[in-house]
Amino acid sequence: MNIRKHPDGTRVASVIPADRIRRWRGFEGRERDVLVATYPKAGSSWLLTLVTELLGQAPSPSIPLDQAVCWWERDCISELESPLEDNAVRVFKTHLPGRYWSKFRGRIIVLIRDPRDTAVSYFHHALSKRCLGFRGTWNEFFNRFVNGEVEGGAWGHHVAESLRFAQRSRTLVASFEDFLCDAADFIDRVATFLQVGYDQEGRSSARARTDFGWMASKSWINVPWCPLTRDGSPHLRRGDAGQWHELMSASQESELALAIATAWATSPSQLRVALNKRLR
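RESULT FIELD:
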């Protein structure tokens, strides 16, 4: 698997230049900026679709999602030197851990997904992306995932760090499962956090445009972000919960739970409670 370990321990795809990662660390941005920070395969494309829709900057055939959003690991800071209005809202995404966005002045949404579903979704993602160069089995991928030998590193460490830095103001923590449980409430929470007003028509539009089937069918939203393999599945493959049962054995589930518990053992007790609530 084409993964490189940055000097500070961060694991990224080998195609990402080391200097690009280094330059983003400590990036402050503007107060009106919005950052979606997630571990890989937590639902970032779906959340970005919602955020851009609520901000009135929804992707379109002429401006697909991967152009409407700045991805820290792909894009250069110098590319932000554009003639934007001072009050323009820029939308960013990153899979980098919390220490990279700890000084960000804008609003941050940290999205978390059940690690079991994350692992299975990540396996299919790894098989489909040419840049990752993975051609192994589920068992081979699981070993890499549980040991943190994938982009994003170990899920437990990444999420614990993200939530530690998310204790600051102007940060919303949510889960993929929150949306599946009550989409209308989730959309309202995000809209309130972004301080955007919208009526019933706007609410209905946001719900329709975040329907998984609708997003998956639109080429300007279901973008690969990096080249697919010849037989790779689309970037948006499944939009449900519980798919981990299809591949993950009981012993693997236990192994993953132990790895996460070990990663969280050194976290403050208050943070451990917050982490465990997210996995209920």
